[in-house]
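Summary of Year 1 activities. Much of the first year was spent building the evaluation harness for sequence design. The harness presents a backbone, in tokenized form, and records the residue chosen at every position. We chose the following record to illustrate the format because it has been used consistently in internal testing since the harness was completed.
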């Protein structure tokens, strides 16, 4: 009888469970700081949900679909560009997506090798203080003084909606449809639902968005969300707000979605985009006396430490927005505190972006949050329609809004709906990080003609002195 292969016991300074943006960035930074680092990832490719089936592939499809729509719908005629016999090659578009994903995941592998990070493929779980067991391809028992849980999240669903992984699915399926649906029903008007809904709408699908709450993009600046919804409706997407979905099922070659108080929706495919849940099951948390909260998140203090000595948690596994860049910053802050004694994330300066067309970006507080807190604030807005570069690009929808403390003028938040909003918000994020005032931003020289001038003008408008309106 063949003997069972012995599982090796290996020591490291730091073990990280999860190689998504939070985990792999933490591993790289820790290695730079001189630690012997191990990172466990059960998927073959590194990068987590973001790189493999989330942020990166969806952005590849968003960009590709925008290019197609510009040509197919004649948007370039105003620039003197005329095209005929335009057709969609969905297979080529998907190959582009795959090549982008592959380049990114291989890039993480390269960085691990460059920085000397040891990678284990398998499922990682705690097995008492200072011990992590790897089950799977690279089975091992790891011992380390420090362990970071960076396990990410998975797509949530709702009662009555049965996922079949094909007709009724999550974003995992919606980034890989083999043909354009005639009718796509999207359950959830959050970031994922709007982004992927807009992709398939541009490619020719009828898209119906069902949202339980009374507004799209719940939690974002309400004025900006209302403006965005009007634009999306012009683009052909239809919305039913305050819609409680009671069931979704496959019926014949299609699907039926039932909504309380409305006639059932018959469609080809259903995208369930009702948020994400932290992946904190099967991590052996009980072995170190850790419990999750009511949403499955791991409680941590301001230093990302759990109640178990030597165990930390970051990213989607803890409280806060489920954003890749938030996880990255937490990963860096966590390992820098382990090594240097100091690490910090300013959560007021973490931007969020919706990569629709036009883009929507925000950082800091919304008007609703300031009103609820009783904070006196001043508001400045400026439209892209009054900007020379936006006119040249024929991209004049939307505005920049800046919110500043009424007494100190310190910038408290910013909300942008318009072209390249995701890039423009970085300027305000830096301003908030540095404690800048609206006056500081308004006095800074901005190149002309650029879209960034809209940010400057909005800052000027806080004091009622915008120049070009």
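For this record, the design step produced the sequence shown next.
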């Amino acid at each position: 009888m063949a003997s069972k292969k012995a599982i090796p016991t290996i020591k490291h300074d730091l073990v990280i469970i999860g190689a998504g943006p939070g985990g792999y960035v933490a591993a790289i930074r820790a290695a730079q700081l001189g630690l012997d680092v191990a990172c466990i990832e059960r998927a073959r490719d590194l990068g987590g949900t973001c790189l493999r089936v989330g942020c990166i592939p969806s952005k590849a499809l968003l960009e590709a679909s925008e290019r197609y729509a510009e040509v197919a719908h004649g948007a370039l005629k105003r620039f003197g560009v005329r095209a005929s016999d335009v057709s969609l090659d969905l297979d080529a578009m998907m190959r582009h997506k795959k090549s982008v994903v592959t380049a990114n995941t291989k890039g993480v592998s390269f960085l691990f090798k460059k920085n000397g990070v040891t990678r284990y493929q398998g499922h990682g779980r705690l097995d008492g203080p200072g011990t992590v067991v790897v089950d799977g391809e690279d089975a091992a028992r790891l011992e380390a003084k420090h362990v970071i849980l960076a396990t990410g999240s998975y797509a949530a669903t709702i009662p009555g909606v049965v996922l079949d992984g094909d007709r009724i699915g999550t974003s995992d399926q919606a980034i890989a449809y083999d043909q354009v649906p005639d009718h796509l029903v999207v359950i959830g008007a959050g970031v994922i639902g709007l982004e992927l809904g807009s992709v398939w709408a541009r490619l020719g699908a009828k898209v119906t968005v069902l949202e339980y709450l009374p507004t799209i993009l719940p939690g974002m600046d309400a004025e900006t969300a209302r403006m965005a919804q009007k634009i999306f409706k012009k683009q052909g997407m239809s919305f039913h707000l305050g819609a409680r979905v009671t069931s979704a099922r496959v019926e014949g070659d299609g699907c039926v979605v039932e909504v309380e108080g409305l006639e059932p929706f018959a469609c080809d495919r259903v995208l369930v985009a009702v948020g994400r849940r932290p992946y904190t099951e099967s991590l052996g948390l009980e072995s170190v006396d850790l419990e999750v909260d009511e949403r499955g998140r791991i409680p941590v203090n301001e230093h990302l430490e759990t109640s178990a000595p030597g165990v930390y948690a970051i990213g989607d596994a803890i409280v806060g927005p489920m954003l890749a860049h938030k996880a990255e910053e937490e990963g860096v802050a966590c390992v820098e505190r382990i090594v240097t004694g100091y690490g910090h994330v300013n959560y007021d300066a973490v931007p969020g972006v919706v990569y629709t067309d036009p883009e929507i970006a925000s950082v800091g507080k919304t008007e609703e949050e300031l009103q609820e807190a009783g904070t006196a604030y001043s508001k400045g807005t400026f439209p892209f329609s009054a900007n020379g570069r936006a006119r040249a690009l024929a991209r004049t929808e939307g505005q920049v809004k800046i919110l500043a403390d009424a007494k100190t003028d310190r910038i408290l938040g910013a909300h942008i709906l318009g072209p390249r909003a995701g890039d423009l918000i970085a300027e305000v994020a830096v301003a908030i990080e540095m404690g800048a005032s609206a006056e500081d931003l308004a006095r800074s020289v901005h190149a002309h003609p650029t879209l960034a001038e809209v940010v400057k003008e909005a800052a000027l408008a806080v004091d009622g002195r915008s120049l070009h309106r």
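The radius of gyration is 24 Å. Quantitative recovery figures across the full test set are reported in Table 2.
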